[in-house]
């Protein structure tokens, strides 16, 4: 009887530890299911020193077997459907999916084409949507941060503080490098 109680407490402790690690350091894997690469460039921009998504504990991972969050760009094509499902199935539980860009949400400019099946949610379940064509790095950071707040609500104030420090709050006017270089800002 005492052994069962100890086992139950140990399982609860391990579950809390796993949830803490997932919320504090999620690993992302990126999959392009047929986009024009505009969204891909913006996702990679979030990892540069200017935006530094790693401040939130997020790391881009190359293997779906080690990733917690699948970040998808582009509409799902007939050719990429099976690969997307395979990548999703290779991810360990719990897993989350973020659709980045208009094409991954609804098919975007490619909707209605002969080889387009639609958005990512036509194939796998999606947990967060980040609209835009392409979405700015601030929007990508804000969308991933919203997912983190869902995973660990008690950390919401810390995440909001980091977002404000990064300049990725949605209320602010987005930074336009072209305007700053030309002096029109």
Binned, the helix content reads 40-55%
Helix/strand/pairing category:
alpha/beta
What is the number of beta strands? 7
Low-confidence stretches: 171-185
Q: Helical segment tally? A: 7
Backbone CA Rg: 18 Å
Q: Report the sheet-strand fraction.
A: 5-15%
SSE order: HEHEEEHEHEEHHH
Shape: globular
Describe the sheet with the most strands: 5 strands, parallel
Average pLDDT across residues?
80
The neighbouring-strand order within the major sheet is 2-1-3-5-7
Distance between the termini: 71 Å
Query: What oligomeric assembly is this protein in?
Result: single chain
Walk me through the topology:
Elements lengths: L1 H23 L2 E6 L5 H8 L13 E2 L8 E5 L2 E2 L3 H10 L5 E5 L1 H5 L9 E3 L9 E3 L6 H15 L4 H11 L10 H6 L3
Parallel strand pairs: 1-2, 1-3, 3-5, 5-7
Antiparallel strand pairs: 4-6
Helix pairs in contact: 5-6
Write up this protein.
The chain is of the alpha/beta class and 185 residues long. 42% of the residues lie in helices and 14% in strands. The protein has helices spanning 2-24, 38-45, 81-90, 102-106, 137-151, 156-166, 177-182, and strands at residues 27-32, 59-60, 69-73, 76-77, 96-100, 116-118, 128-130. Strand 1 (27-32), helix 2 (38-45) and strand 2 form a beta-alpha-beta unit. It is globular, with a radius of gyration of 18 Å.
């Amino acid at each position: 009887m005492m052994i069962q109680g100890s086992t139950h407490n140990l399982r609860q402790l391990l579950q809390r530890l796993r949830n803490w690690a997932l919320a504090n350091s999620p690993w992302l894997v990126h999959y392009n299911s047929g986009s024009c690469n505009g969204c891909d460039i913006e996702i990679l921009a979030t990892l540069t020193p200017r935006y530094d998504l790693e401040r939130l504990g997020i790391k881009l991972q190359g293997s779906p077997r080690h990733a917690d969050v699948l970040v998808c760009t582009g509409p799902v094509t007939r050719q990429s459907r099976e690969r997307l499902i395979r990548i999703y199935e290779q991810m360990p539980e719990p897993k989350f999916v973020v659709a980045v860009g208009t094409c991954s949400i609804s098919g975007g400019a490619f909707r209605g084409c002969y080889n387009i099946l639609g958005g990512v949610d036509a194939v796998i379940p999606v947990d967060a949507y980040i609209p835009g064509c392409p979405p700015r790095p601030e929007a990508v950071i804000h969308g991933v941060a919203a997912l983190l707040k869902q995973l660990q609500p008690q950390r919401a104030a810390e995440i909001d503080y980091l977002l404000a420090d990064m300049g990725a709050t949605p209320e602010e006017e987005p930074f336009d490098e072209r305007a700053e270089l030309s002096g029109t800002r």
